[in-house]
Every structure is written in C-alpha cells, then in structure tokens.
Automatic annotation (TrEMBL):
InterPro entries for the chain: RtcB, RtcB-like_sf
Quaternary context: Monomer.
Record bears the keyword Nucleotide-binding: yes
Protein name in the entry: tRNA-splicing ligase RtcB
Gene symbol of the encoding locus: rtcB
C-alpha cells in the first residue's frame, strides 16, 4: 500500500495539490495556499482516487470573495467524483458571510424518497407487465395528469408541499383528485424540512404564475442522468426496533425515487450563476476555478429565496412521482397503504452554525434522521440512520458514486456486452438504449465499501437493505 500511496501523492503534488492520507481520511489543498482550510475526503484505500475531483475540492476550499466572508470547512463523502460544473459531486461546503450558487448547481434539491408496501415480490412480479405498461404511460408517454390551479402553483413555489396541499384540498385536480390527500398531509412530517422552504413565485418561469390552470410538463418526471424510480424488495433488516418504528419489514415491496427540480432548478441555477458573475467586483480577477461566490447580503438573501423556490418544486415532483406509482399499485392490488418512510434532499444550502452549509450530491445525516443511500440498479440500496457526526458536517453519501464516465461507456470500441456492463439479470425500463448503457452497474463504484466506511467512521448506522426488482430510467 505505502509505495502505491507515495506514487499517488507525488502525482497529485505535480498537479499542484498538497495531499496527506492516514489510511481513512485524505486532506487536500492547493500548494502554497496556507490560508485555505484543507478539504477532507473520507475514502477507504480500496476505492479509486480521482485527481480531478481532488482539484475541484481544493479549489472550492480556496474560494474567496473580495467583499469578505470565508470558507470554514470542506468535506467530501466516499462516493465523491468530478462534477461537470467544476464542483465535485459529494462536496459539503461550510461558509460564513458568503454563499456559492455553483456549489449547488442547477439540479436544486435533487433528492431521494422511499416508500414501502405490504405486497410480496412474488405477487408484484406476477403483475409486472401490467404495472410496467401503466407506469410507462405515466412516466414516459404523458398519461399522467398533474393539472393544478394557479393558486396551488403559487402556493407551492412560495411554501412548498404544505402550501400546495392547502390549495389542493380546496380544488383537487388531475391525479390529486384520485389521491388520499389526508394521507399526503400526514406524511409531510416525514419529508425533510416539512417539504417546504420560503420561496417566491417571482423566481420561477412565468408559466407557473399565469391565471387559470397550470399544466407543467416537468412535474412527475424522472429526469436524466442518475435519476430513477426503482421498485425493490426489503431484503434484510439490521435494526429491527428502528425499522419497526419507521414501518419497514423484511419481505415488503419498496419503491425509491431519485429526482429533483427539473427545468425550474435549471432556470434558477443558470440565472444565479450568471448573476454571480455580473456581481463580481469590476477589475478583480475571477477565480481560476470559475466558481463565483456571492458576498453581498442582499444578493445572498435573494439567491437563497430563489433556491428555495426550486427546492419546493422538487419536493412536489418526487411526491407526485411516488403518488402515480402508489395509485397504480392500488389499481392492481386493492387497498394498499404504501406509506412514506422519508424524503431527503441532496443539493441545498441551509443554515448551519452561524453560517451556511451547501451540499452537492450529499445526504443530510443528522442524529436519528433517516438516510437513504442507493446502489446501482444492479446492487443493494441501504436505509440508514444518521449519527449527527460533526466532523463529517452531518453529511453522508448520496449513492455509490460514478467510477466511469458516460462517455467511456458509450464510446466506440467499448465493451457493451451485458456481462461487461453488469446488466445481466437487471430489469431496466427505458425508452433510450443509451441510458441503459450510461447508467449500467459497471458505471458505479461498489456500494458496500462506501457504506462500510461511513459506518466505521460513525456517520451512519445500517437499518435495512433493499434489493432492486426493476428500475425506470428516463
């Protein structure tokens, strides 16, 4: 291990990084920048190290704004890997006096939602074909109906799921008219932050604030990339008392949703990265990383309100994706409760110890809080409980993390056989053949070492394991 590690550290030094490793935790910063806090990466020795991701992490720790403010700490989860926007996926950034729109990006409040249902895998698979055809209609062909009144749309953007529910109770339309609204209301307490932040409709596209009915084509859609809807079986329970309290039992059906704010997040994220550039003091050199913080208090307040607006949309997007699936289960299997276990965000800026904590592809892991860590569509997923570990900035991984880029999997000459991609026995429903290749199990790191590293570090504890039955990819 030591000669290999020494070679790695020398290679990273040639890339301008000062790196140390104690066998569990990497410490990294830009060479010659003693004022920046060292960024920490929890990474077991058997997982790959990517120089580009380390570079992005060190540049994030070195951010400054001419008007003041500071980066206090930067941490990365074991699934971290390079991000297309210049911020590594898995980064957690603690700041004071500044916020960084680029540290969240455009997939605002990408997150996970988990339900369980008292249906056996055998009974479900007996009706698999009928279920898949109905869900393909909802997710891919537009048979879903997510119409809402403009008042409900504005309430959603302003107050989140609770605002939408209050207006929808008065005028239930579309699929909401078939939903058990009392159940949705009772489940709000199982959504992180109650499913709502203080947003404002002014930050959303104009189509959401028109008078009359709002029919948004993006609501209840999965989205691209690593987003998915997966039907699973609860394979094993490790913490029986906690699982019982959360309504989780061995042998249950489960469904897990990974999606975010779609076009609303893109609208907000792009606009605010542009605005951060416009607000940068004239004559002051731009950061080499291209990541621009906001230091002006008014701009910080406005950005956080805009981010909250997109986050509110994402909470409802996941709720409706789940509700369409739950309604379909009820059509096929009768009176199925299928309660929510938890809904948790990955990409958000939230208050933390007198400053701000921005997570980019990382899951909140506060004490006693449910944590959802999915594997690839060919691997186990994990339901965990957070330990509130301060050194980890109360954050856990949001998955296994990519091991290979989409390009490397789809380029000419790449081995795209089922065996090479890890797709043997995987039931993936998609209309795009390339999506199955790009998101194949071979694209991802093994989930077990990622989870074990966090258990050993006292970040999370295991509650239950879930194995995939079928996965929808857009």
């Amino acid at each position: 291990m030591q000669p290999k590690l020494n070679r790695l550290l020398r290679a990273l030094a040639r890339e301008g990084l000062e790196v140390a490793y104690d066998g569990r935790l990497y410490s990294v910063r830009l060479l010659g920048d003693a004022h920046a806090p060292p960024a920490e990466v929890l990474l077991p020795p058997d997982l790959p190290v990517e120089g580009k991701a380390f570079q992005q992490l060190a540049q994030l720790a070195a951010l400054r704004h001419p008007g003041g403010g500071e980066v206090l700490r930067v941490r990365a989860t074991p699934d971290f890997h390079p991000g297309d926007s210049g911020v590594a996926i898995g980064s957690v950034l603690h700041t004071r006096g500044l916020v960084v729109p680029g540290a969240i990006g455009t997939d605002i409040n990408c997150g996970m939602r988990l339900h369980v249902a008292d249906i056996s895998a055998e009974d479900f698979l007996a009706k698999r074909s009928l279920f898949v055809e109905r869900m393909k209609g909802h997710y891919f062909f537009g048979t879903r109906d997510v119409t809402m009144a403009s008042r409900a749309s504005e309430a959603l953007l302003r107050d989140g799921v609770q605002g939408w529910l209050l207006e929808t109770l008065e005028q239930p339309l579309g699929c909401a008219g078939r939903a058990d609204l009392a159940q949705l209301d009772a489940e709000v307490s199982r959504i992180h932050l109650g499913g709502g932040l203080k947003g404002h409709p002014r930050w959303a596209p104009e189509s959401f604030t028109r008078e009359g009915l709002v029919r948004d084509a993006g609501l209840a859609t999965i989205g691209g990339g690593n987003h998915f809807v997966e039907v699973q079986r609860v394979e094993a329970v490790e913490d029986r008392a906690r699982a019982w309290d959360w309504g989780v039992r061995e042998g249950q059906l489960a469904f897990m949703i990974h999606s975010g704010s779609r076009d609303v997040g893109k609208h907000v994220g792009v606009a605010w990265q542009d605005r951060a550039r416009q607000a940068w003091p004239a004559g002051t050199p731009l950061p080499a990383s291209g990541i621009l913080p906001l230091g002006d208090a008014r701009l910080v307040t406005e950005y956080l309100e805009a981010e909250a607006t997109a986050a509110n949309y994402a909470f409802l997007n996941r709720l409706l994706l789940a509700e369409l699936l739950r309604q379909t289960l009820r059509e096929l299997f009768g009176d199925v409760e299928a309660p929510l276990v938890y809904d948790v965000p990955h990409n958000l800026t939230l208050p933390y110890e007198g400053g701000w904590l921005a997570r980019k592809g990382a899951c909140p892991a506060g004490a006693e809080q449910p944590v959802i860590i999915p594997g690839s569509m060919g691997a186990t997923s994990f339901l965990m409980v957070g330990c509130g570990d301060a050194r980890a900035l109360e954050s856990a991984s949001h998955g296994a993390g990519r091991a290979r880029s989409r390009f490397s999997l789809s380029r000419g000459g790449a081995d795209q056989s089922e065996a090479a991609l890890g797709l043997t026995g995987v039931d993936c429903i998609t209309l795009r053949a390339e999506r199955r290749v790009e998101e194949a199990p071979a694209a991802y790191k093994p989930i077990r070492p990622v989870v074990d590293a966090q258990v050993e570090a006292g970040i999370v504890r295991e509650v239950a394991r879930l194995c995939p039955l079928l996965t929808f990819k857009a």
